[in-house]
Model the fold of this input.
Amino acid sequence: MNKIFKYLFDIGRLEPFEIKNSSFTFCLASPSTYVYVMIMLYYNPGLIIPYYGQEVFTLLFMLVGLVPYVKSKFLNEVYGWIVFWTLIIFQFYLTYTTALNNFSLDYLLVTYVFIFGSVLLLSNRLLVILFSASQLIHLAYRVHYSELDNISESAILVSMSTIFIFSFLVMNGLIRYRKNLESVNSQLEDRIKQRTADLENRAKELLRKNKDLEEFAYVVSHDLKRPLRNIYTLTDWLTEDTAQEFNDTANKSLRLIKEQVTQMDLLVEGILNYSLQMDTDQVKKTVDAQALVERIITVNSGEHVRIILEKKLPKVSFNESQLLQVFQNLIQNAIKHNDKNNVEIHIDYTVVNEKYQFSIRDNGPGIEEKYFDKIFELFQKLQMETEVDSVGIGLALVKKIIERNGGEIFVESELKKGTTFFFTIQQ
Done:
């Protein structure tokens, strides 16, 4: 019994777009029915309209059209049955009225249009067959007991049968197409669900690996710094306290060891800083960029180094330690790679597209355009001399910090005249 109820329930279930389409059709049919009846009565006052049909069905069609707006889950699920029985009732009334008016052309025209349209509103083959069969039987009964001649009777029945056949063929094709479309959509949904699940699993795996890499970088960097300091201290002691006991070659080797240890320490520190910039949700607060940069200027200025602020810098919402690294790395980069006796660095900002665009311009050797992208890559540097205190992490770290905070960084440069680094920060 439950299976029968479920089967009948499924027959009356419509897709959301079908409910919307049926609702719109009935809302449109409501005033149209009334207007058409009034026009018929105007041109043919002798027409018989029993039981106040124009008012009753105008109201019924409007009520059926407004059912989906009640937002009732049950009514929406049985809306197909509501549509079916509404059409059946109107079909019987229309056929009965057509017979009362001796199959007037006015009513026959309405009957033909209604039958074709009704079949298209039904989404289930069984409902289409029930509707068509009942209409044909009722019409045949009314025609048989009418006063029409045989030719007129045959014409009505044949024309009505033809309309039913063609409307059924059209509806059958639409139903097949919809079933195929539902099958394709179902397969597509399954594939999307599978791919979504795969992407979620990959995202979790990547998150886990990234976390492992962060922990690995931190542990390795932290553990490597201690032996490096020991090596440097021991080498420094040998260089200072026992320099006279070694020849020039040995002393040179000791200095080289110290330089390499310094480079290694910078590399480890850079890896540690770079790996710890994975968290974009680090605490942000209002940072006075002017005060922050002035502190950096105090540390890095010297007899041959001038750092000039073109105007007072604004306050920005940023992680203070990250902003410090950005300005410090860019300023120190401009100093380290400068080939002039007197280094000049100009710091400025403008507002572009509701963002602060900071600029750091130097008077260094400049950079060829083909290297503009390379300088921001990890472990990439254009100068390979060991005396240059750099391992190629600074600019990569700056780029990572800026981009992970919704900004961008780019460079403009002219050989032998200098380089300008630009980066943006949200206001």
